[in-house]
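Entry for the shared binder. Reason: the reviewer on the internal report wants the predicted structure included alongside the sequence.
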Amino acid sequence: MKRVFCRTLILVLSVAPGFSATGQTKPQSPPNTAQSTPTPAQAAAPKARPGDVDTPEHLLAAVYDVISGPAGKRDWDRFRSFFYTGARLMPSGKNQQGVLGVRVLTPDEYAARGQAFFDKEGFFERSVANRVEIWDHIAHVWSTYESRHAKDDAKPFARGINSFQLFNDGTRWWVLSIYWEAEDAEHSLPEQYLH
């Protein structure tokens, strides 16, 4: 099965409590208090469409939507608006030598690599089943995906699992990470993740 590097995105933010994204110390604030000034992530990211980031479900749909389409340019500013500062996208799988590993990408790195593929190929990805868990300001979505070169292709050329980690800052949802793996001939998706 053809492995496509640009299937979907996942980001991980690893910032220790009490430190900003730049590594400078900042005062601790009590949990669950909304911030009145923009965070570095809010200030740096392009402005998101409100309907893209108001719920985990809408954010997931927006991620799939922005990377999908016929061969050609994608709206990378919209894509970048989904991601919190320090977010990562991490495809995992075997390399050509059969060694398992994970590639860690920033949203910009994903966009650069993805556009090189999208310039030549149509790519339509959609979720076929989502398991959403939310508590307070965090959410995790286990999303089974299918990828096609054309929207009406009878069969996908790739399937797999995207693991989305999300954060709500009190005003909107952000992607922290997208970590994924595609199925292959040696391990197919279990039935339990297809519904």
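Summary line for the report: Residues 1-36 have pLDDT under 50 and may be disordered.
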